[in-house]
Amino acid sequence: MGKEPTDPRQRILDVALKIFAHNGYAGASIQEIVDQAGVTKPTLYYHFKSKGGLFQALVDHAADERFRVMREAAEKQTSLEKKMIAMTDAMIRHASERRDLMRLIFSYWFGPPGEIPRSIHCEKGLRNRDYVELLIKQGIKSGELDVHYDSMELVSGIMSQIFIYSMSQILDPKFARKPGQARRIVRLFLEGAAPKRHSTRRAA
Questions:
Q1: Residue 177 near residue 93, CB atoms below 8 Å
Q2: pLDDT digits (tens, 9 = 90+) for 151-168
């Protein structure tokens, strides 16, 4: 077991993540968070101002972590296909390893209407989309992707697959991450599922 963080701010974040992830925003109690973190309410409010501020800090942290994971994986590769495979695998693995963080993000996206304060936003999450669009545009420019497709259509295609497989790590054990899964996802994205038609030449 790892050592418990001595920094009270980090202890609050660690405890709050678990409580928000499993109880939702409305069900999370500030008193429970401070009790489990071993701090006082004034300490929590000093660092985060409010319950909404604490939730916002966690949403920002989740976005920062996902962005770091996908970028570091992609930038170690050369071709678009290898970048996509590495990025997809890293993000699905991250979802599997950081389930509380993913539950928090899903509660932000899919929580009951009005539960999350309108002041809370996930603007940092747009970097993920923008980074994938950058890769897509590079692939179009290099000839690795069809120039007739709109870049955002392609971004939606691959990001929706990553999202579904990331969500499945939490919702359904049958979809546990498997070897070669990321490669199959990316090949489906790049090639489609239709049978390949090979031209044949008649003998002269």
A1: yes
A2: 999 999 999 999 888 888
Token pair recorded at residue 162: 């990553």
Give the list of residues 6+ apart from residue 120 with CB closer than 8 angstroms, or none: 52, 55, 56, 59, 108
Tokens coding 122 = 């996930």
State the pTM of this model: 0.84
| Cβ neighbour number for residue 75 with a 10 Å cutoff | 11
| Region at 13 (left for phi over 0; alpha for psi -120 to 50; beta for the rest) | alpha
Alpha carbon distance 113, 116 (integer Å): 8
Which residue, 168, 152, 153, 186, is CA-closest to 106? Answer: 168
